[in-house]
Design goal:
Layout: H1 24-43, H2 64-71, E1 75-80, H3 85-98, E2 104-107, E3 125-133, E4 137-138, H4 143-151, E5 160-166, H5 176-187, E6 191-192, E7 197-198, H6 200-210, E8 224-229, E9 261-270, E10 279-285, E11 298-301, H7 307-317, E12 324-329, E13 344-345, H8 346-353, H9 362-368, H10 375-384, H11 389-400, H12 406-412, H13 420-426, E14 433-436, E15 447-453, E16 456-458, E17 464-466, H14 468-474, E18 486-492, E19 506-509, H15 516-530, E20 538-544, H16 547-550, H17 554-562, E21 568-573, H18 583-589, H19 591-600, E22 604-610, H20 614-630, H21 634-646, E23 650-655
Parallel strand pairs: 1-2, 1-3, 3-5, 5-6, 5-7, 19-20, 19-22, 20-21, 22-23
Antiparallel strand pairs: 3-4, 8-12, 9-10, 9-18, 10-15, 11-14, 11-18, 12-13, 16-17
Helix pairs in contact: 9-10, 10-11, 18-20, 19-20, 20-21
């Protein structure tokens, strides 16, 4: 290594003894640095500690478990509800518990993860009122609960439960959700204390069966108390809003079931050329709403009741319908403070919030019976509400088969004049009506189309009953003299979807207004063709009564066929000849082409319309085609179609 002393440059320079150790510049820099250090030490912002992530606790201050403990309740009734029927039934069961010496509450199944804690409450029971939506699917509010049951491995040992399944026997997947919940809870160790119930009738037997040792005399208990407002500010009174007060005056997205969008009606035209029915096409403007939809989705609309019926009820009961009232829940811990938005008027409640046109359920008859002053009327009402064979038969013939709504019952039982507040407490909520959207958002991004038939018929009592929604929509004419006719609406997503690959063929079967979603499908397939996409065969089977009377969208469909968007347009005119011809007959007539599309070309099958007859007959037609051309037995054909359903290649959008 070189010696550093050998290099003069490596030697330090000697300082002059008279030169100061620090120059003025050094002192300035030193002071500045020292000041910065002091400032940093005193005024610096201390580093915030990184929060430790903690798994969310399942215990909630307002959990149903806490509420049950606080209020001494031992029964919780969960509901999976799409249209409100299961929720209404759950509320009735919770209320009935009080009449048998127990205390109940209803709850949304969102707190499913606390179920195992029910064992902390003595003599506790969980009841599940589960409706089924679509093709065996859970309702929207029960989807998370279903997923949790399906994927989880919770231990429900010691939890006592029972399930009531609510559904329609005409549907393929009748009560599928209720059956699944009943089976899965048992698999996870819960104790079934009452066999799976199928609807209201089994509900009547429930409490007498499980509460024999507690049973007391059946008492009528009010759930809500009436408060009449005499000097309330009009701006604080609900006038038809479903959630936020004044939401119809000050619209804010996102729009949903509690916050519907007021869509202006831009088109309302009659579709049929003749006949005594009224089939209509409406277009709703959603410009600026940020609402998005896809072909196959449903539009939900909130109708209002006929003012003639509302006024007649008010006259019979001798009340001022413009009285401002609130119905307040006597159970202060209940999540449901009111049966409908309050404060409001009786007129608004009967017009916007309550179902006054459907036949009342047996529990309504039972509770109203106490107000009939004629013993015979009271006896008949209680008999119809009973679970006896005679009572059921009387209810079926006198109420259901005769289509008696609450007004008809008040008219036919002259001695029955209940307090209007109790009537409002008992009547179910007026529900949204769902229509398959008859347009494609690719072609009509700012417009939603509806295709519907106006419902009007004469009952066995000689009365004329009118469908609430369709008659209301019929009168919703486009803007006239500056006034916009609007419809409160929102979108309900559907699984009724075109194939992901546009090259897949589609077979669409939709007689009558069942054509609705297929108008959207065909529009979309046409749009895809315009974009240069490879689009598979698009085959439609449509049916109506007469070609010159009710061939809906005839010009549009024939144009789609002419331009090649529709590969084949098959129309069954059921009454244009002596022997009736329906869509299932055309399917069998074209069986070779149908079987090729389904079995060889992976076609997707779509059915929309009547569930009771048409959908069943069409399914049988596919069984027969599979048997004949696929060489299958009936059992094999049934299994073949079920596999198509599982793969999403056989979809139904049906109603009864």
């Amino acid at each position: 290594m070189a010696d550093p002393q050998a290099d003069p440059a490596a030697q330090p320079e000697l300082m002059d003894e008279d030169e100061p150790f620090f120059s003025n510049l050094d002192l300035f820099l030193f002071s500045l640095i020292a000041g910065l250090i002091v400032y940093w030490l005193i005024f610096r912002k201390k580093a915030e500690p990184i929060p430790e992530f903690k798994k969310p606790q399942t215990t909630r201050e307002t959990s149903f478990i806490d509420k049950m403990k606080k209020t001494g309740k031992n029964i919780v009734v969960f509901y999976g509800s799409q249209t409100g029927t299961a929720e209404e039934f759950a509320n009735r069961l919770a209320k009935d518990a009080h009449r048998y010496g127990m205390k109940g509450m209803s709850a949304d199944p969102e707190e499913y993860d606390l179920l195992s804690r029910l064992t902390e409450i003595e003599n506790s029971i969980a009841i599940f009122c589960m409706a089924t939506y679509g093709e065996g699917d859970p309702t929207d509010n029960a989807q998370d609960f279903y997923d949790w049951l399906h994927e989880g491995d919770a231990d429900f040992s010691g939890v006592k439960y029972t399930v009531f399944a609510l559904g329609n026997k005409t549907y393929e997947h009748y009560n599928a959700m209720g059956k699944y919940v009943d089976q899965r809870l048992a698999e996870l160790g819960a104790q079934r204390i009452f066999d799976l119930g199928m609807g209201d009738d089994d509900g009547k037997k429930y409490f007498p069966c499980v509460c024999k040792i507690h049973r007391i005399r059946f008492n009528l208990i009010r759930q809500y108390e009436l408060k009449v407002h005499s000097d309330l500010n009009m701006n604080k009174i609900y006038t038809g809003e479903l959630g936020r007060l004044k939401s119809f005056e000050n619209q804010k997205p996102p729009f949903d079931s509690k916050n519907p969008f007021l869509a202006p009606v831009t088109v309302n035209r009659k579709l049929n050329k003749a006949g005594d029915r009224h089939l209509m096409h409406l277009e709703l403007d959603i410009t600026g709403s940020k609402i998005r939809y896809e072909s196959g989705d449903h539009v939900a609309v909130y109708p209002i009741n006929d003012s003639v019926i509302v006024n007649r009820i008010g006259d019979l009961l001798g009340v001022d319908l413009d009285t401002v009232i609130s119905l307040n829940n006597l159970d202060e811990e209940s999540n449901k403070k009111h049966p409908f938005p309050c404060p409001t008027t009786y007129r608004t409640a009967l017009t916007h919030y309550l179902d006054i046109t459907n036949p009342p359920r047996t529990n309504v008859l039972y509770e109203l019976a106490q107000y009939a002053t004629e013993p015979k009327d009271q006896e008949n009402m209680r008999k119809m509400a009973s679970s006896s064979a005679e009572g059921k038969a009387l209810y079926q013939s006198w109420v259901l088969d005769s289509c008696r709504n609450i007004l008809a019952i008040l008219e036919d039982f002259p001695s029955l004049r209940p307090p209007i507040d109790h009537l409002c407490e008992l009547l179910p909520r007026l529900q949204a009506r769902y229509y398959s959207i008859a347009s494609s958002s690719k072609v009509h991004p700012n417009s939603i189309h509806i295709c519907a038939v106006v419902v009007e018929y004469k009952t066995k009592t000689g009365r004329v009953n009118k469908g609430v929604a369709t008659n209301w929509l019929k009168n919703k004419m486009p803007a006239d003299n500056g006034h916009k006719a609007t419809v409160p609406m929102y979108i309900r997503k559907s699984q009724f979807r075109l194939p992901f690959k546009s090259s897949n063929p589609v077979i669409m079967i939709g007689p009558g207004t069942g054509i609705a979603p297929f108008m959207g499908f065909v529009q979309e397939r046409g749009w895809l063709k315009e974009q240069g996409k490879d689009v598979g065969e698009t085959v439609l089977y449509y049916g109506c009564r007469y070609k010159n009377e009710d061939f809906l969208y005839q010009e549009e469909l024939e144009e789609f066929e002419k331009t090649g968007v529709l590969t084949a347009l098959n129309v069954a005119f059921s009454r244009d000849q002596a022997e009736k011809v329906y869509v299932q007959h055309l399917l069998k007539k074209n069986k070779e082409a149908v079987w090729r599309l389904v079995h060889t070309d992976n076609a997707h099958i779509y059915i929309c319309g009547d569930a009771r007859y048409m959908a069943r007959d069409v399914q049988n037609a596919f069984y027969e085609i599979a048997e004949e051309l696929g060489g299958m037995s009936r059992a094999q054909a049934v299994d073949y179609i079920k596999k198509l359903m599982t793969k999403g290649r056989y979809s139904q959008d049906v109603w009864s």
